[in-house]
Amino acid sequence: MSAIRATNLSKRYGGTTAVADLSFDVEPGQVTGFLGPNGAGKSTTMRMILGLDRPSGGSVLVAGRPYAELRHPLRKVGALLDAKAVHGGRSARNHLLAIAQSNGIPASRVEEVLEIVGLREVAKRRVGGFSLGMAQRLGIAAALLGDPEILLFDEPVNGLDPDGILWIRTFMRKLAAEGRTVFVSSHLMSEMAQTADHLIVIGKGRLIADTSVQEFIGRSSQGYVRVRSPRLAEVAELVKVGELHPDHLRVTAMSTLEIGTLTARAGIPLEELTFVQPSLEAAYMELTKDSLEFSA
Amino acid sequence: MIDILRSEWTKIRSVRSTVWTLVITFALMVGLGALLSGSVKSMAEGPVPAGQAIASSLLGIMFAQLAMATLGVLVISSEYRTGGIRTSLMAVPRRISLLTGKLVVFSATSLVVCALACAVAMGVGLSITQPPGLEAGEFLRALVGASLYLTACGIFGLGLGTLIRHTPGAIVAAIALMLVLPQLVNQLPGQWGRTVADYFTTNAGMLLVAGEGNTSLGPWSGFGVYLAWIAAATIAGALLLHRRDA
């Protein structure tokens, strides 16, 4: 059974279609990146998964059921949607306590999650004064309260400093390694490249790709070989198929071995002979270029 | 359900706005009651009648009702303002259960605080006016009536907050429905206008505090009419809460 299963999920607001006929499965034990440009429908999809927004069509199951039918849902599913969406007048501890009590989670667990996210020192402070990084940690603490097997994070690294980003990234990897399902949205491919095992890419509310990160790179665009040499013009003449740049030659039709053999026979010294992997960013841009809501 | 009640109790007791609105309710009840009782006593030629003494001691209710309505509004509208409503609904996706939890906890808290405020206001006021021949039954009936009325005003606020979701909007609606419109409909002409005025929100509800009926309603039937208004606002809010995207 998939942890999350969306089947022909759709959401329309008036005349605007936010999500259209979206079907995907999210599996346990890995980090699944939910990727798409801003406005692609990621947050809307997450809200539908969590029973906050009602789908216009289709359905989505969490742990085999619609979210609203889960008894004590926080023990199955933890989510961080908007870290700043808390009552600023409440202390961190009381905020978490109210959430815990609603799902029959003991108060001792509040202290545990405060410890896990490193907020124990500030547990008595009003959350209105928290920095974004602290609010993000508080949101993660809330998501962890029920020790859930399924976790959803909506743009968790937005606005965080490098320390915070590294912390969240490491943390998500750890949760997945424990066998949990981690479903995390982002509009930044570079972020997902370092965190996710699997990618679900959407644009304009529609599914564009549902693949492993490796496959995604391979399928989208080719790599190339970069050659640098003090006698670059001669190399270009030799390999014929290259594209000559001021300081290097770019070859897509030949392997490093083929180029190296040719130049060695001709006795031309090389400074560099590298196969350049296409970046995820490039692959992603290529895939989503048709589905950007607003293009520059 | 007990889980939800405990959670809502934690929420309501852990924000300052609860403490402030309850303190203001208490201060308005006791302060205004004492003030008016003092002026009634000084103007009276001879002993103050019991009925007038009780009414003077409870005068603060006109303003305290708005403090209670404000607290009722805030119990839910503050969650919409901050976005905390999503956290609440993720924890309790059965939305009507969540609203029921809020209603129960808020009503119980309000009833306790309002009963205390009314009792102290009456105690202070009556000790100033010293009415002769005050019966315990009369005292108790006024105390119960005033406490229930104030609590109902708070629930009206909670219902309007659920319906409107927006703090200033809901508070304006509460002031209009509880204070402004009841005065305006009193000016309606004819028998038809009289009936509308009698059945209008606080015009009907206050009969329980005054302890006497008007032409068409008694104290308890008047309060029943007021509760029907409150139920209408709350049920409309509940239906929208159930249907709307959070």
TrEMBL record, chain A:
Signal peptide: none annotated. Keywords: ATP-binding, Nucleotide-binding, Transport. SUPFAM superfamilies: P-loop containing nucleoside triphosphate hydrolases. Residues 4-229 form the ABC transporter domain. The keyword Protein transport does not apply. The keyword Cell wall biogenesis/degradation does not apply. InterPro entries: AAA+_ATPase, ABC_transporter-like_ATP-bd, ABC_transporter-like_CS, P-loop_NTPase. GO terms for molecular function: ATP binding; ATP hydrolysis activity. PANTHER family: ABC TRANSPORTER, ATP-BINDING PROTEIN. Belongs to the ABC transporter superfamily. This is Multidrug ABC transporter ATP-binding protein.
Automatic annotation (TrEMBL), chain B:
Keywords: Membrane, Transmembrane, Transmembrane helix. The keyword Membrane applies. One of its GO terms (cellular component) is plasma membrane. The chain crosses the membrane at residues 20-40, 52-76, 103-128, 140-160, 167-185, 223-241. The keyword Transmembrane applies. GO terms for molecular function: ABC-type transporter activity. It holds the Pfam family ABC2_membrane_2. This is ABC transporter permease. It comes from [Actinomadura] parvosata subsp. kistnae.
